[in-house]
Amino acid sequence: MTVEEAGRALADPTAYADDRRLHEALALLRREDPVHRVEREGYNPFWAVTRHADIMEVERAHTRFLNAPRPVLVTAELDAMNAERAAQGVALRTLIHMDDPDHRVIRAIGADWFRPKAMRALEPRVRELARRYVDRMAELGGECDFVRDVAVHFPLYVILSLLGLPESDFDRMLKLTQEMFGGDDTELRRGTSAEERLAVLLDFFAYFQELTAARRAHPTDDLASAIANARVDGEPLSDLDTASYYVIIATAGHDTTSSTISGGLHALVEHPDQLDRLRADPSLMPLAVDEMIRWVTPVKEFMRTAVEDCEVGGRKIRAGESLLLSYPSGNRDEEVFEDPFRFDVGRDPNRHLAFGFGVHYCLGAALARVEVRAFFEELLPRLESIELGGEPEGIATTFVGGLKHLPVRYTVRG
Mind listing the pLDDT tens digit for each residue in 314-351? Predict the structure, then answer.
């Protein structure tokens, strides 16, 4: 593999479904050209930033490197369509699309719902749902596709319970979430055109506009009501900003955690010594959770755009050029992690970048940790044996994802 081929892999959704290929490419880039200019047909050019230190430098300098106008890697066609919609004032505006001062103000609306006090109040519900899905594993008779039968449902129920949505809508939200993040995957996507991808967002907006109207007419004590009735400078959020807030909470709060839980279980199955170690010493669970998060790194990248000429990792970056921050690469950086390709449930320190860094640090990081910990604390005491029941399959993506199938055979006490 050449350096150029390695760089192009970052704009190839199928590379993220093949861990060996992806990490071979990323290791080559870290070693040979850690800030590498990528030109791939169908995409606007970008700089791939692959070392932990360089990613941190860009994350810290949030006034020099902006999320807008290109917060994630998409095709040139979608870039153009997003720019056109932004000019018309009808583009998605989630927290990942925003920079300060808007980002700081809008983020604060939901921040209290994810602080430690709120997490403590939510934890009994999280553990109840974790038990429900471990019970589900027991009911399935010792064999299941862990992703489809368990991992995609548990965190979805948690986040939609926090929003206050009825369980009758959960399947609809699951389908829309998978279509949104699975747009590059032939099994999950709704269609192949940019218009079909945008149609998924429009379906989200239609649903959440109805929700906004309902919560404004009849306020409740859930997060959906807090968003719908928030005021900025005395004015309610626009329908677009309200719907965008719901979209990022409902999708990012679900898909990333399900990927971590399924990828974490896969890692434990593949490293039985670490499974035995964790079962023998449950006090390692907080460290194990962060190691699972590092190992999976469900958010593959965010983009930043330079506002001025500058230098990153010895490379000259021009104003207006975009940089892709490769989190899976940063989380395997040999300069930061001792033996980074070893899955170690006791890894400490663990300076992973899976939640980002700085002002855009993941709003739901504490919730994700609570969910992953609760699930494995419910599962491991009841798990007598487990092995793969077939070949795991990853999602084709360039943004968010993990496993889409994890067939397992197991014994779980009822």
Answer: 999 999 999 999 999 999 999 999 999 999 999 999 99
Measured in degrees and rounded to the nearest 5, phi and psi for residue 56 equal -60, -40
Position 179 scores a pLDDT of 75
d(CA 385, CA 373): 19
